[in-house]
TrEMBL record:
Keyword Secreted: no
Transmembrane portions of the chain: 55-72
Membrane topology per record: Single-pass membrane protein
GO terms classed as biological process: protein transport
Major localization class: mitochondrion
Family of this protein: Belongs to the Tom22 family.
UniProt biased composition (Low complexity): 9-31
A GO CC term attached to the entry: mitochondrial outer membrane
InterPro entries: Tom22, Tom22_pln
Location in the cell: Mitochondrion outer membrane
The protein's name in its UniProt record: Mitochondrial import receptor subunit TOM9-2
Location of the region described as Disordered in the Swiss-Prot/TrEMBL record: 1-36
Amino acid sequence: MASLGRKNQSLSRSKQSSDSILSRVSDSSIVRKGKSTACDAAYVAKRLMKSTGKAAWIVATSFIVLGLPLIIEMDREAQLNELELQQASLLGTTAPQPSFMGPSS
């Protein structure tokens, strides 16, 4: 029993000394500056991710509204040109060449 009492006393002494060391370390200016810097970095990262998410949403919806119909229409135009070429080859005539500058006179 006496040995248990001594162990408890030594544990309580070491616990008290470690608490005082821990409290002194946690109250130091370096730890406070580190905590402040970590909080600032977390705040900046949160704001950056929030604004990045908003930008990604804007880009994605703009593509769906503007880009996707353009891609579909270009695909339809390519299919139509391909169909005209097939019909022309079956009939034995030359297919009209697409002119990007308009009709030439």
